[in-house]
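User: Structure please.
Assistant: Input sequence and predicted structure:
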Amino acid sequence: MSGELNALTQRLYAQGYTRDSFPDNVCWGDFQNFSYKWDFLRTFTWETPCGLMIQGDSGIGRSIAISDGSYQGVWYCPENDNALLRCPYGKQSCEHIPAGFPLPMCPCHQTKKPYDYEQSIEKIDAEQSRAAQKQYMELTGGAYCACVVGSNGYQGGWYEVRYDVDSCIHCRCENTTCVIRKQARDLSRVNVFYDIRRTWITRIGFLEEKHVEVTKGVKVFPRPIARTDAEIWLQTQKANYNPLHSTSFIESPKKTLEDRRQEFFSKQHRQYLQYEYFEF
């Protein structure tokens, strides 16, 4: 934190080192603090308060090496020997988690104990990865599906189904059978078209003049999509349509800069008795 010396810096100063003379395994991390060099951090073995070990050169160990944050006046970083690791079990109520932490983050410290894979976070991570892969295969059969998304891994597994045809369209799904609906998909390419009606109304007293302009065949999607996705998308739009609150199935029609200018002008001037206003 700004204005605070980390434990590493304090220890080196106490040993007689200076800003111009310091060990090879450290460097200046900022204007007043020493930091461990990256290659040196990779040689560490970390240990959680509950006795699980982390190898410094593993992916998890590297994530610990770059952890840096503060909470309630405490600076958590490798140089303070309290680098943070997210608990692999998500135990927010664990006694080792600092009180009030918004996430189950566990302060880890360096250890001289020999690294033991059997008592390591790496082993837990590998087991969880295998369990996640098994669950994904059970849900999808091995096919990629944009509607099968990751969850926190603590409540009900590592994946969950969130069916949304917009996700299918966005990822250009090419599965011949829908992983979620278990139904065949027509992959022939189509698009959805709509019309835009622009209305200009000029009113002077009780006299009103109306001019209408219609633009037909505007594409909803910038590129063709699977026919099945288009049909489901249309059904979804129809189901969500509320005639009391909307005048269009299309939530975001393609408005030009002039459309937006006209809308803004109309909104500001409709209070007057003599005016022009625009409806889209």
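The chain has a mean pLDDT of 87.
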